[in-house]
Amino acid sequence: MFEAGSSAQYTFDLPAEIVTDQSVTTQIQVIAGGPCSGKTTLLRALEQSGYRVEGETAEQVIQEGIASGKTAEEVKADPVEWQEALLKQDFELFDNLTDDAIVFTDTSFIETVIFSLRAGVAVGPNIEAWLRQRRYRRVFFLDPLEYEGTAVRIDGEEVAKKLSQEVRACYERFGYELIAVPSVPVTERIAFIKSIIEKD
């Protein structure tokens, strides 16, 4: 397994046509953070509150694999193939979501970039430029909660902490100012987020 920032074995990119001369800020509100930060619980609560929510691509694919009798490790057996599929799906999601309605997403394309680097897959210059042009409206970063292992979260606590740091650093590298969501009950997290987005 590659560590983030190490030399990649493979570069994934898309045609130069994806890059335009105009920056676009979408209404996508990202719920970000490392493992065990409470993203899933918060997103479910946001959906119950009437907001549109797009789930995490990786989580959905892994859950489907587990339901069919595979382990999370088996689903991700070929790291290059796995990450390339996620990059393609996440690109299409980000590129096709509407710009005029609030949408909450479980993580983002940027976090897929992080996990791709860990698998030895780098993104090319066209995707790098595209990510700096097509912007998420906000990135809410969740502080870690008490660690709990699951079949999906196959990483240990120390890896989870490291991933959280890498996620924060990657968003900042792409020019995002993260909005820290404190480790409080989900109802308070919802109220905090609403207080931010209702300022628009």
From TrEMBL:
Transmembrane segments: none annotated. Pfam families: AAA_28. InterPro entries: NadR/Ttd14_AAA_dom (IPR038727), P-loop_NTPase (IPR027417). Residues 30-189 form the NadR/Ttd14 AAA domain. It comes from the Eukaryota. Signal peptide: none annotated. Gene3D superfamilies: P-loop containing nucleotide triphosphate hydrolases. This is NadR/Ttd14 AAA domain-containing protein. It comes from Cymbomonas tetramitiformis.
